[in-house]
Amino acid sequence: MNNINLHRNLIALLQLDGIGRKKVKTIFQHLHQPENLTLFEIIEVGKEFDLIPGTIEIDALKKAGAMADFIIEINVKNHIKMLSCFDKSYPNALVFEDSPIMLYCQGNPKLLNIDHRVAVIGSRRPSSTGLKFAENTGEFLAEQDFVVISGLAAGCDAGGHLGCLKGGGKTLAFLPSGLLSVYPSENAGLAMKILDNGGCLLSEYTHHETIVPYKFIERDRLQAASCNFLIVSDFSPKSGTIHTLNFAMKYHKKIFTTQSIFKQSIKGFQELRKRNIPYEVLEEKTLHNLIKNYKNNKSFVFL
Fold it and tell me: Which CATH number describes the domain made up of 109-297?
């Protein structure tokens, strides 16, 4: 497969106004061997099915193609791998209805093919109890050979990543930014530690895109979609954590926490009840036993 040509066309399509993931996937349903087509041929198919305006200007297409070439050049120079949802190597863990068209990654994306993956999430401003819980959970998961997934945010996300590294494990971070401008910047050092220890940084955004609020929510869907289940630490009713937990419900992923965190974040859990988002509150020992059992049997049995 001509992945470079395919990637170039996909990146170019996403540069066009009004063209997003859904339209690109719909266009590609009508294509035979899209890796061998030019951008202009793909555009013509999009026009035929009224997915791309017939009035689109040739200059806009040329500009999109030039931007795609520039993005690919920058990625190659910075050793950023590119994966599309049409590649055979695209991870099964991210095959879902609203999956990214393009993924940009540094490190080892094959971590998403490992059977045991848990998201550790929570507030950016956790209590000392919540931060310690995230760190301890990340460390315990690493000791049980789980990949820890989070979003590299300050607070509980960083705690989960750091705990995993402390436990000798591998952790994967989804970013709301391009990989050349790690967000938040204060966690750039943590991002390097993740890579130095065999982990992975992933984003669906190119290096030149600005950070806007909706990208945090889109990042949250990837954390929920890519894990086997989630463990939540501190969060408030207005926390971005709610978005991740809502996606967890949508993707039928179980949510666990402990009694101590439940008491710490009672208002956050009340908000989950209002939204009919299911979760389970366990004693810490029970949670650890559940993790061990899932590792061995891939089922949720309480020991």
Answer: 3.40.50.450
